[in-house]
TrEMBL record:
Transmembrane segments: 261-285
Location of the AB hydrolase-1 domain: 122-239
Source organism (scientific name): Tetradesmus obliquus
InterPro entries reported for this sequence: AB_hydrolase_1, AB_hydrolase_fold
Keyword Ubl conjugation listed: no
Keywords tagged on the record: Lipid degradation, Lipid metabolism, Membrane, Transmembrane, Transmembrane helix
SUPFAM superfamilies: alpha/beta-Hydrolases
Name of protein: AB hydrolase-1 domain-containing protein
UniProt keyword annotation of Transmembrane present: yes
Length: 425
């Protein structure tokens, strides 16, 4: 194992080109066994660790078998116990084009009276494609990123984008109510940001985006519009604006032909979810969403039966038509790159990227490529997997948020990043 210290930009890069580019699809057989040693042997035997760190830091950087940050601080409450103190409120904001979006506000009502210091910035959680914010970040009390954040004192807001979760639904037979990813970026994101900032009185917030929710944050910064300055930090979970190596990059032509009227993701995934844990379980479909051995059955069942909604054809074509290209995700008319290298090279927002080593939706190579575009001196990328020494288990797309061991292997990275960058500018 080699350590290479380089000057800015600073990035914790725990995967090499060889290990990152390895297609995870060829190792599916090992996913069903909860044996980290057997799974690790299926991966590259030699991994070179390259670390670029802050040029202003005088501390030496060390790599060990587990690079998870210390999570001992503020651990008085477990994730499950935090759910007992959480108060949840439902809010509604209206986009400029008239869509009603649901936002959940989760907080500890006793926090203001406590003597302990509180974080200064709220946290906004944004889910991915066709996903519910609740089912992504707040699935069950013991497997809830929301609860973990509230336990650390954060004021948490969870968004549902148009057509998803508790937000307004489309008319499936009226194409005028269908949307694209561009509509999320141009209308939903500004409406949610404006509402949360006004409700909290904050000037900035921490953005944590899962999958497409992270891509929208990158797009917001590439736009450099009025709300770009609202991001205090950003965390990209199982995200990235480049889809090379994903399952959909292989099946894109077939998917395009079969989804001329969109895709009923809610119905299909609910059918798969109803079989979770049974002898008829469709594990090969589940493996697209999470590592079956790393996901509690109760979480898997609730995720698959309740998280997803209808995906309009415009969203499908925009994703499949650009995400897997060299340009990465672009606008429908190809005039705008969500991860614009020229713009992002001057962006100084702290960015953390966390991808699972066996994520078939957003492979780690795309997450790393996205993070590397940022000019920020505070940027890190971590590929979670035993072959990188970053976790004892492999992670897929959703178990990186609500997997069996996410609270001990994933959440500390997030909490450490938020704490490091919560101080005012």
């Amino acid at each position: 194992m080699s350590l290479v210290d380089l000057k800015a930009p600073q990035v914790l890069n725990l995967i090499t080109d060889a290990s990152c580019d390895e297609a995870p699809g060829g190792i599916l057989a090992g996913w069903l066994e909860d044996d980290s040693s057997s799974r690790e042997s299926a991966c590259c035997s030699e991994i070179e660790f390259v670390i670029e760190r802050s040029s202003t830091s005088s501390d030496s950087i060390k790599c060990s078998s587990s690079s998870t940050p210390d999570s001992s601080e503020a651990d008085a409450l477990s994730v499950g116990e935090a759910g007992d103190i959480c108060q949840r409120e439902s809010h509604v904001c209206i986009t400029q084009d008239g869509w009603r979006l649901h936002i959940s506000h989760v907080f500890d009502p006793t926090a203001e009276a406590a003597d302990t210091p509180r974080p200064q910035h709220p946290v906004l959680l944004v889910p991915g494609l066709a996903s519910s914010g609740e089912h992504t970040f707040d699935l069950l009390p013991d497997y809830s990123l929301v609860n973990a954040l509230v336990a650390r004192g954060y004021d948490v807001w969870v968004a549902d984008l148009r057509g998803n979760g508790h937000s307004q639904k489309p008319c499936l037979f009226d194409r005028s109510t269908w949307w694209t990813v561009d509509d999320h970026l141009q209308h939903d994101v500004p409406a949610v940001l404006q509402y949360v900032l006004q409700a909290t009185g904050a000037r900035q917030l921490h953005w944590i985006g899962h999958s497409m929710g992270g891509m929208l944050a990158v797009g917001l910064l590439s736009q450099q519009g009025p709300f770009a300055a609202a991001l205090r930090s950003m965390t990209l979970l199982a995200s990235g604006c480049f889809g090379r190596g994903s399952w959909h990059s292989i099946l894109a032509p077939l998917i395009t032909r079969l989804t001329g009227y969109g895709f009923p993701a809610g119905l299909v995934c609910a059918a798969v979810g109803s079989l979770v844990g049974s002898a008829a379980a469709l594990w090969f479909v589940e493996a697209l969403f999470y590592m079956p051995c790393n996901m509690p059955q109760a979480c898997a069942r609730k995720l698959m039966t309740g998280c997803f909604r209808y995906i309009p054809v415009g969203v499908i074509r925009q994703f499949l038509g650009s995400l897997n290209s060299k340009q990465g995700l672009t606008s429908c008319d190809s005039s705008f790159r969500y991860a614009d290298p020229e713009v992002l090279s001057s962006v100084q927002v702290p960015v953390l990227g966390l991808n699972g080593s066996w994520d078939l939706f957003c492979p780690a190579v795309g997450g790393r490529q996205t993070v590397q575009l940022f000019g920020s001196e505070a940027k890190q990328f971590v590929c979670l997997g035993p072959q990188h020494g970053t976790s004892k288990r492999h992670y897929g797309h959703f178990d990186i948020v609500s997997g069996k061991h996410a609270a001990e292997e994933v959440y500390p990275h997030i909490m450490g990043w938020l704490q490091q960058h919560d101080a005012p500018l």
